[in-house]
Amino acid sequence: MRLTRKRLCSFLIALYCLFSLYAAYHVFFGRRRRAPAASSRGLRKGAAPAREGRGREQSTLGSEEWNPWEGDEKNEQQHRFKTSLQILNKSMKGKTDFRVQIWGKAAIGLYLWEHIFEGILDPTDVTAQWREGNSIVGRTHYSFITGPAVVPGYFSVDVNNVVLILNGREKAKVFYATQWLLYVQNLVQTQKLQHVAVVLLGNEHCNNEWINQFLKRNGGFVELLFIIYDSPWINDMDVFQWPLGVATYRNFPVVEASWSMLYNERPYLCNFLGTIYENSSRQALMNILKQGGIDKLCWVSVREQWQPQETNESLKNYQEALLQSDLTLCPVGVNTECYRIYEACSYGSVPVVEDVMTAGSCGNTSVSQNAPLQLLKSMGAPFIFIKNWTELPAVLEKEKTMTSQEKIQRRKMLLHWYQHFKTELKTKFTNILESSFLINNKG
Q1: E strand or H helix at 161, and its extent?
Q2: What is the pLDDT of residues 384-395, one digit of tens each?
């Protein structure tokens, strides 16, 4: 009887040891054995959707044998995951903790957000009352709001740093912009906002004195001003030049470069579609084009009166002209800088720019040899600059001697420059905001 009991105890102990070894094997070696298979699936599939991966993981676990220490193992895994997450959060802290909200109350805001920042707006409908988007650049998290529903006092302000985009081109726009600045001034005075910058579509004659009272250097609250056109105020300390960009108010789109845009032969040497003003250099341009039948080599379509809005047909026609022409003629209007310059770049059509100062207070050629178009020239714009349209016939004769390969290479260079131009602006804009706002925080 004693022998039987002893054998039974030995059997039970042996059984327990075998079971323990079996369980330990599955815990410590079973997971390692499955890992390579999982990783090989990941390599084979590439970047597989996370949802699909989770589903596959659940079905695999359902067919596995029972693990007696599964609960403890899951707790340990969760602990390791939380620890890793905490380490990741600590490493990211300070990298995207600077938040800036952009209030787009002028059409130039869409150029900043969609073209320079390459941001998306929700909803995509351009007629929507409220549109918004988010983007991260460096350590800065940007949010963008725009639309008719963005009205002073009718939306929540939950940020410390704001960039306000305004139109100050004409008297009616200045009145509207002033109301926004008075509203923001109140937010700063009541400590609901800490830092404010303004991106301003300035007056084409650079008569922007109305905003002086709001600048911080004059006792106001606007710490940074990014201004369009060659304002004599630009000092790269608190006033910076900003590009005019494309005519987003006419729904000019974000253009993606394509193979055909680069390599297809373009049937026209140049194009000009625009308004002819009386006693302007545009009249001189038309006279030059008519001499010797040059206008037959170019896509030319003119009108006598400016139209603020494009029809779908006229916009499509204009885009097609840019796409089918090697050069885009850019005569001055009220100001030297025009939307046409940037729109031509979008399609790889080299701008031929009339490089003369227009009437008004913009620029100062005695101070800067780059005036006008200081920003574009300082960033190495690969354009053709001429002082007088009498130079155009020689430019077009040179075009005729260029090979298709030479034109393709020039097109590539222009498109590459334009992309680099926008990327540099985004980086510069962010660096300026961070440097100014964060340093003032410390102060």
Answers
A1: strand 161-167
A2: 999 999 999 999
The DSSP-derived string for 86-155 is HHHHHHHTTTS-EEEEEEE-STHHHIIIIIIS----BS--TT-S-EEEEEEETTEEEEEEESTT--TTSS
Tell the residue number behind the tokens 């350590």, with chain if given: 139
The pLDDT value given to residue 46: 34
The Cα–Cα gap between 318 and 172 comes to 29
* pLDDT recorded at residue 55: 37
User: For residues 218 and 231, what is the distance between their CA atoms, to the nearest angstrom?
Assistant: 17
Q: Which residue, 229, 230, 255, 232, is CA-closest to 244?
A: 229
Cis peptide before 123 (omega within 30 of 0): yes
Beta strands 131-137; 140-146: pairing state: antiparallel
Q: Which residue, 94, 98, 79, is CA-closest to 440?
A: 98
Place of tokens 């499509």: 316
Query: How far lies 340's CA from each of 173, 213, 329, 344, in Å?
Result: 22, 33, 8, 6
* Sheet with 131-137: strands ordered across: 131-137, 140-146, 98-104, 161-167, 195-201, 222-228, 239-242
Q: Strands, E, within 171-263: which ranges?
A: 195-201, 222-228, 239-242
pLDDT, mean of residues 1-12: 60
Tens digit of each residue's pLDDT (9 = 90 or more) over 259-277:
999 999 999 999 999 988 8
Residue in the structure block whose two tokens are 């896509």 = 299
Q: Which CA distances in Å does 371 have to 230, 310, 422?
A: 7, 31, 21
In this prediction, what percent of the chain has a pLDDT beyond 90? 68
Any idea which residue has 């009249």 for tokens? 283
Structure tokens at 152: 């002073």
Q: Which residues contact 315 (CB under 8 A, 6 or more apart)?
A: 250, 251, 252
pLDDT digits (tens, 9 = 90+) for 39-96: 333 333 333 333 333 333 333 333 333 344 444 544 555 555 445 444 444 444 445 5
